[in-house]
What we know:
five-stranded parallel sheet; alpha/beta; 22% strand; 2 domains; FAD/NAD(P)-binding domain; four-stranded parallel sheet
Amino acid sequence: MADNSAQGQSKRPHVVIVGGGFGGLAAAKALAGAAVDITLIDKRNHHLFQPLLYQVATAGLSPADIAGSIRAILAAQANVRVLLDRVYGIDRVSQRVILGDGEPIAYDWLIIATGATHSYFGRDEWAPFAPGIKTIDDATAIRRRVLLALERAETETDPERRKALLTFVVVGGGPTGVEMAGAIAELARQSVSKDFRHITPHCSRIVLLQRGDRLLPSFPATLSAKALGGIEQLGVEVRLGADVKAIDANGVTVDDEFIPATTTIWAAGVMASRAAEWLGCTADRAGRVKIGADLHPAGDARIFVIGDTAACTDASGRDLPGVAPVAKQQGQYAARVIRAALVGRVVAPFRYRDWGNMATVGRSRAVADFGRVRVSGLPAWVLWCVAHIWFLTGHRNRIAVGLTWLGSYLTYQRGARLITGDIAPDLPATLELAPALGRRAVRPLDLAAVK
Length: 451
C-alpha cells in the first residue's frame, strides 16, 4: 500500500484524483464513505461548469454563477483532502504523482481527469488573435474584447475601422461555436443597441465559419438544418466548407477572402492534456490516452483515465464524445471498480448510457437529440435551460442562473456587461495594427521630461 507524509498514520488505500472537473468530482463523490483516503489535485481552486462559459464570455452570466469552490463542494466528505498544485509527471513504477510545489504523492489508485485545451491544428500562432474558451480567464478576456469593440465603435468616425470593430468571427460550427455566435448576435443586435447612441441592431456583423458541410455534425442532419435556420434568423452569417488560412490582429482570411475583424473567437478544436506524456503511453491525434472498456491505459489496473483526457469507444466502436455526461459516468465507474476491489469483487466493463445531446442557438431556439425523439425550437430550449440549471453545482448557482435567465428573457438585457482588467493589453502595440483597431499607437512616456 502507498504511503506518504500527507496521509499521516492512515493505513487505508490512497486514491489520488488529478482534476476537479466533472469526472474528477464525480469520482470523489462516488467514493464518499468508502474505506479509502482521497487526495484531489487541481491547479485551480474551483470547479467550473464549462457548458455555460460562453454565457460569461457574452455577458449573460457572471463567473461566480457557474463556478464553485472545490473545497466547499467536498467539505462534508471526511475522506477527501484537496490540494492546489500542478502535476508535472507520474512515476508508474513507484506509483507516485510528481507535483510542482509539494512532495510527490504516492497512490494505490490514480484517476486522471485533466480535461483538454484548445487545438489550433498546428497553427499556434493564431492563438493570441483567436482565443478559445476553456477557463473563466478565457471567458472574461473574450467578454472584454467584445465589449471594448462595441465601446470603440461608438466613437469611431472612420467607416472601415468601425466596420471591423463591429465584425465578430467565430471559427467552428460545433455546439460551442453555434452557441457563441448566437449569444454574440443577441448581445450586439438586441441587448446593447439600446445602450449606445450610434450602434443599431443592424450595425454588427457576426460570421460563423465551419469547415464541414453542416453545423453541429454530431447531431442528426435534420437538427443541423434546424440549427442553421435558427441561427441565420438571428442575423448570423454562416459559411460552410470554409477553409481558414490565416488569422491576425486585423481579421481572418477565409479561402481567398479577407474579413476585417478585431474580434475572432476559436471554437474549432481541442487537444487533451499531457497525460499521455506523463504515462508514457499511446495517444490519438488529439493527444487523448487510448484506454479499454475498463478505462485503464495499457493494462495498468491501478490507473483510470477519464473524460476529455481519454480516447474511449462505446459498444458499437464509436468514439465517445467529449461531454460532461461521459466524464461523470466514467468517474462514477472508476469509483465502483475501486469499491469492488476493496471487497474482492469484479465490475463489468464500462458502458456509456447516452441520455441525449442538446445545443442552444439563441433565445427560444435550441435542438435536442434523444435518439428516437428529436426536438427543436422553444420546447428544446426549455429542456436545455432546465437541464443546465439542474446540473449546476450548488443551489445558489441554480437559483442565480435561473433568475438571471428569466430576467434576460423578459427584458432582453444582459446584466454582466462589465469590462474587467486593464484595457492596455487590448490596445494596439504598433503603428501597423493601429489602423485596424481605430486607435493611434501609444508612445512610451518620457520620464525624464516629467518635472
